[in-house]
Specification:
Elements: E1 2-6, H1 11-28, E2 33-37, H2 50-59, E3 63-65, H3 74-79, E4 100-105, E5 108-116, H4 118-121, H5 134-140, E6 146-152, H6 156-165, E7 172-176, E8 186-187, E9 193-195, E10 202-203, H7 213-222, E11 238-239, E12 242-248, E13 251-257
Parallel strand pairs: 1-2, 2-3, 5-6, 6-7, 7-9
Antiparallel strand pairs: 1-12, 4-5, 8-9, 10-11, 12-13
Helix pairs in contact: 1-2
This protein binds fe (ii) ion (2 copies).
One fe (ii) ion is lined by residues 8, 39-40, 67, 69, 177, 179.
Length: 280
C-alpha cells in the first residue's frame, strides 16, 4: 500500500493548491491512500474550514487528521463528525471527535492514529483536564492491519522516543504541528518509518505560515508576540510538506519526500518498490 501524508495545510490558498495537485500526486506516486493534516486549513489558519475540507476530500484525500487547532471554531468542531476526520486520540471521553480511523486501500487495512503531546495541547480550552499521555492513547487505540501515526507534537525528544517505542508495531510515525520540515527520513530497525516533522503545506516565508508583522510588533512593544492582533496567513510562496511511503506487511519498505508536481523533475510515474531519488 502506498500512502501520501501531507503535513498541516495552512489557509485557503495552500488548500486549493494541494487539492489541485492531489490527482497528479496520486498518479505520479501510485498512491493508494492520502492522509492530510488539515488543522490549519481554515482561511484564517485557525482550525479546519468546511469548504477547505470539502475541497481536500473531493480531490482525493481519504483521511483528515488534526491537532491542537481541531476545536478552534464551531465550524471546525462540526467537521469532527465527518467519518473521514479525526483529531488527537489521547483524550479522556467527552471531547468532540474521534482519534482513530480504519481505512481500506489496495486490499489492505490501515489504521490511522492521531496523537498529540502535552506541549502542543496545553493551551487548548476544549480539551482542558482531558489530556492523556500520547503513549496511553497509542496503547488504547483499536489497531488493525498496518498502523500510521500522525504524532502532533512540539517536543522533539518525546516524538523520537515514541517512534522508537513503537518500532516494529507501527508502520510509520509522522510528526506534525511545528510546521518546519526536518530533514532526515528514518527507517527504524523494526521497519517503522519516522519523520520528526513532515512540515506544513503552506506559505514558507513567515512564522509557521503566518505573516510575522503582528507577532514582531507584539514582541517589540510588550515582549509578548501574541499581545496584538492575530497574525494573518502569509501571502508568500507555498511549500509542500509531504512524504510518500510504501507499506508492506505492516512495515515501511520505502519513504521519500514529495515535491509539488510542477517542481518535480524526476522521471514519472514511479514504480512500486523502485529506486527513486531521495528515497530510503
Ligand atoms: Fe499546525
Ligand atoms: Fe498544531
Amino acid at each position: 500500500m502506498i500512502v501520501l501524508f501531507c503535513g498541516d495545510v495552512v489557509g485557503e490558498r495552500a488548500t486549493e493548491r494541494l487539492a489541485a495537485s492531489l490527482p497528479e500526486l496520486r498518479r505520479r506516486y501510485l498512491v493508494d491512500l492520502v492522509v492530510v493534516n488539515a488543522e490549519n486549513s481554515a482561511p484564517n489558519g485557525l482550525g479546519m474550514g468546511a469548504k477547505q475540507v470539502d475541497q481536500l476530500l473531493e480531490a482525493g484525500a481519504d483521511v483528515i487528521t488534526g491537532g491542537n487547532h481541531s476545536w478552534d471554531s464551531e465550524e471546525s468542531v462540526a467537521l469532527l463528525d465527518l467519518p473521514q476526520v479525526i483529531r488527537p486520540a489521547n483524550l479522556a471521553p467527552g471531547v468532540p471527535g474521534r482519534g482513530v480511523l480504519h481505512a481500506e486501500a489496495a486490499g489492505e487495512t490501515l489504521t490511522v492514529v492521531n496523537l498529540a503531546d502535552h506541549c502542543a495541547m496545553k493551551s487548548v480550552k476544549a480539551t482542558a483536564g482531558k489530556f492523556l499521555p500520547a503513549y496511553d492513547g497509542w496503547r488504547a487505540a483499536d489497531k488493525r492491519g498496518a498502523v500510521l501515526v500522525d504524532y502532533h507534537g512540539d517536543h522533539v525528544l518525546e516524538k523520537q522516543i515514541f517512534a522508537h517505542a513503537v518500532d516494529g508495531e507501527a508502520a510509520a510515525v509522522l510528526g506534525s504541528h511545528t510546521h518546519e520540515a526536518t530533514g532526515p527520513l528514518h527507517l527504524l530497525p523494526g521497519g517503522t518509518a519516522f519523520v520528526t516533522e513532515v512540515g506544513m503545506t503552506g506559505p514558507g516565508d513567515g512564522v509557521q505560515g503566518f505573516a510575522p508583522t503582528n507577532l514582531v510588533s507584539g514582541l517589540r512593544g510588550t515582549g509578548n508576540p501574541f499581545s496584538g492582533a492575530m497574525p494573518s496567513v502569509s501571502l508568500g510562496p507555498l511549500v509542500l510538506g509531504a512524504v510518500v511511503l510504501e507499506i508492506r506487511h505492516g512495515r515501511t519498505a520505502r519513504l521519500e519526500r514529495v515535491s509539488w508536481p510542477e517542481d518535480d523533475a524526476a522521471p514519472e510515474p514511479r514504480t512500486k518498490s523502485g529506486d527513486a531519488g531521495g528515497a530510503i
